[in-house]
Amino acid sequence: MADEGDNLTGSGPIEKVGHLASDIGEYIRQQRNNAKISLRQLSKLAGVSNPYLSQIERGVRRPSAEILQQIAKGLRISAEALYVQAGILDQPAGGPVADAIRADTVLTERQKQVLLDVYESFRRENNQTTDVSPKESEHHDEHQDR
Prior knowledge:
Elements: H1 13-34, H2 39-46, H3 50-57, H4 65-75, H5 79-86, H6 95-103, H7 109-128, H8 134-145
Helix pairs in contact: 2-4, 4-5
GO molecular function: DNA binding; DNA-binding transcription factor activity
Region (Disordered): 125-146
Domain HTH cro/C1-type: 28-82
């Protein structure tokens, strides 16, 4: 028997839940296709039944945070990325570069975090010198090195 929260028909707030479930399902399907693994393989890797995973991908069911974590582990992506897609977490700041780093399926979570940290440190450093023209900034940097 399905939980009331899994009922995605009707209107109003439940309709929004249906939209969120559809979005997360589509995102999971895209990530699975990017990883070149079948639904059955992801089902085994994530420890989620094949029919249930299929329902999630089709937007029929909205997975819990725990199930999303298991799916993320199976896909070898961050659970945070799935939480954001599911509307559980707010979109992290950073723009397209940070989004691309987070979406990269080749990098480990640790590698992604290191890259994000370095990227953010460069952005912070450059924001402190935004009032200075690039030529002045180079001149300023030369004097700092002395």
